[in-house]
TrEMBL record:
Signal peptide: none
Coiled-coil blocks: none
Pfam family, one: NepR
Feature: compositional bias, Low complexity: 70-81
Domain Anti-sigma factor NepR: 28-60
Protein name (database record): Anti-sigma factor NepR domain-containing protein
Domain of life: Bacteria
Disordered, as annotated region: 1-29, 58-81
InterPro entries tied to this protein: NepR
Length: 81
């Protein structure tokens, strides 16, 4: 992905009109294709097992959410009692 971004930056600097700024339609299209490919890859990965298990637990009748407090107080009162 890093190489793709370098290529796009290089091509953008060569093909944009000096003084106008922005990206050419060709560059915008290539960026769009890359973003779609990345999104499709993420969608294909699906939901991680740990998230699926958590959702099942939360959907269970009588389930009460329990958040573990690691590393100190997080009661959102900013030290005020």
């Amino acid at each position: 992905m890093e190489q793709v971004m370098k290529d796009l930056k290089s091509q953008a600097s060569k093909s944009t009109t000096p003084g106008k700024g922005g990206l050419t339609p060709e560059i915008q299209s290539r960026i769009g294709h890359q973003l779609r490919a990345m999104y499709d890859d993420v969608v294909r990965q699906g939901v991680p097992d740990r998230f699926a298990e958590l959702i099942k637990k939360l959907d269970a009748p009588g389930a009460t959410p329990h958040v573990e407090n690691e590393g100190g107080s997080n009661d959102n009162n900013n030290g005020r009692d």
